[in-house]
Amino acid sequence: MKTVTLATRHQGGLQNAASTAAPIDTEALFARCMGNVAFALTLLSELEANGKQQMDAIVRHVANDDLYAVAEAAHSLKGAAAIIVAEPLRGKAAEIEAAGRDGEASLLLDLVRDLCSEMDRCLAYIPTVRTETQRH
Questions:
Q1: Is residue 2 part of a domain?
Q2: 20 to 30 Å CA-CA from 63: which of 44, 97, 101, 109?
Q3: pLDDT single digits (tens) 13-29
């Protein structure tokens, strides 16, 4: 088993909003949930509860050179990201799924690093969404 090191976790919350689009399209998410904000927040809570485990599974499969499992785990994350309209996260997961499916192991470390950063952005953004919904 090879060692995979991904030092992407950061403290400090959201990145500069002026230079980076929101990681989750909340307007589209609320529309998708037919205006049911409580349901939308439940979906976001599921990502909070399961996102780290999904990332850990992908990293573990990359470390074990199990490309089929990488593709499968990335596919699952891609679906979860699509549901909450986290397009950058969905796109990165799709790239990893394709690389795993196509046997492109050499691409995975950089892609997984990018995916971890995008997951961090999403997880850091969810409290902001909660705060904003409470104000309205």
A1: no
A2: 44
A3: 333 333 368 999 999 99
Per residue in 87-97, pLDDT (tens digit) is: 999 999 999 99
pLDDT band with cut points at 50, 70 and 90 for residue 107 = very high
Half-sphere exposure of 64 toward its Cβ, with a 13 Å CA cutoff?
12
In a domain, 129, yes or no: yes
Q: Which secondary-structure segment (H or E) carries 28?
A: helix 26-32
In a domain, 1, yes or no: no
Give CA–CA dist 96/128, Å, rounded. 28
Mean pLDDT of 105-134: 95
Burial class (CB in 10 A: 0-12, 13-18, 19+), 68: exposed
What's the CATH code of the domain at 105?
1.20.120
What pLDDT is recorded for position 29? Answer: 96
Domain that holds residue 66: 26-135
Q: What is the tally of structural domains in the chain?
A: 1
Give SS3 for 47: helix
